Amino acid sequence: xxxxxxxxxxxxxxIWPRPPELPAPALFDQRWTDAIFLHWRIAESVAARFMPRGxxxxxxxxxxxxxxxxFRMKNAGIGxxxxxxxxxxxxxxxxxxxxxxxxxxxxxxxxxxxxDRLPVVLAARAAEVPYVWSxxxxxxxxxxxxxxQAIGYSVRRFRRGARSSFAVTPQLDVTVNDxxxxxxxxxxxxxxxLRGRSIYIPNTHQPWPLRxxxxxxxxxxxxxxxxxxxxxxxxSVLYSPGVRTQFGRPRLVSSLGHPLVT
Length: 262
Prior knowledge:
By secondary structure, the chain is mainly β. It contains 5 helices and 14 strands. Strands 1-3-4-5-6-7-8-11-12 form a 9-stranded mixed β-barrel.
């Protein structure tokens, strides 16, 4: 593993991008909690196969990165209104890559998003967001155990068969501030495709409160099912109690990489 904490590296406070201000009105408001971030290095050429037109892989330390991320969606609602009962809170596990437009707009590209609310999955798939209906269980530390303080997610897809189970033990007193962790989490939008056109959906949130974490266990088929080979243990393992975020209006991205006003 390459060193990522050299004295000459900038601190997170200095390199965290300023969260963008979304033009009113915000389309969605939600909170992401108990987030686990597992990441592996992959070749830039591998990531490039999955990029929408006009978007290229974002690179850190000479590599692209693939992430397996689990979190709990809470109180998702339309605009800045209250969360939608039942449908606004669910568990999600996604596999994602990191993207960049020529104008330096950074985002993520989702290869898959597993969720345990079927209406949410159907609505998202209608918008060509690659959601998959799955059973997802969230495990949290046992209050009667001083030893097993692991937090994790287990996934079983109902139709496509792939499974995943992973957990970490957060080091809640160890704040993470290295540039790689900021690169992987300071993402204020997603790149995707809708009706054959590349789009960017912006969001905004405060910096993730990141904590170091130790891998407790990992048995994953989701990354491979998405078409990515990631061998060995993840190079980056992070935990966050969560952030609140808002999503704004999508815009088109031209094939030349210049944003198109919609």
